[in-house]
Write a structure and sequence with these properties.
This protein is an all-alpha fold and about 150 residues long. The protein has one domain: Alpha Horseshoe (Serine Threonine Protein Phosphatase 5, Tetratricopeptide repeat), CATH 1.25.40.10. About 80% of the residues lie in helices and about 0% in strands. The protein contains seven helices and no strands. α4 packs antiparallel against α5 and α4 runs parallel beside α6 (about 110-125). It is globular.
Length: about 150
């Protein structure tokens, strides 16, 4: 049996995902295109290719938002924000996290809202401006009320 090298396996998976995106676009299958772009973006993120991951996740989020799928769109937007932060683009990640938070609120996903809020705070902390944000003020106020 011939073993495939790790690099060859990665290349084959990327090629397969990109081919599926292309065929989905040509067939006009938006749901399959969005799902495949989401998976491709996640895989590119895993490979530490943040800019490429961002582009795939951004397009998936656009399609999902246009189709009224708030939960999956929120996950794609959250992925966009994470992809940008891995490329030291924290300032650009903030609107992605804000949009993700909005989508999570829309679909009443408290765990997703918290995850996106935490990611936003982390990006703000990297920029050394988290304490000036409305988000941090709301969290601090909640902590005082619970203590």
């Amino acid at each position: 049996m011939i073993e495939m090298s790790s690099s060859a396996h990665k290349d084959q998976l990327l090629s397969s995902l990109m081919s599926t995106v292309d065929s989905s676009v040509q067939a006009g299958n938006r749901s399959k295109e969005a799902a495949t772009r989401f998976e491709l973006g996640r895989y590119l993120f895993h490979l530490e290719r943040g800019n490429d991951a961002f582009e795939q996740l951004r397009r998936a989020a656009e399609i999902l938002q246009q189709d009224g799928l708030a939960g999956p769109a929120a996950q794609a937007l959250l992925g966009c924000g994470h992809a940008l932060t891995t490329e030291s683009r924290q300032e650009e990640s903030l609107p992605m996290f804000d949009q993700a938070i909005g989508q999570f609120v829309r679909c009443q996903d408290k765990a997703g809202e918290l995850e996106a809020s935490a990611a936003k705070l982390e990006a703000l902390a990297d920029l050394k401006c988290w304490s000036d944000s409305v988000l941090s003020g709301a969290i601090i106020t909640r902590d005082r009320g619970n203590g």
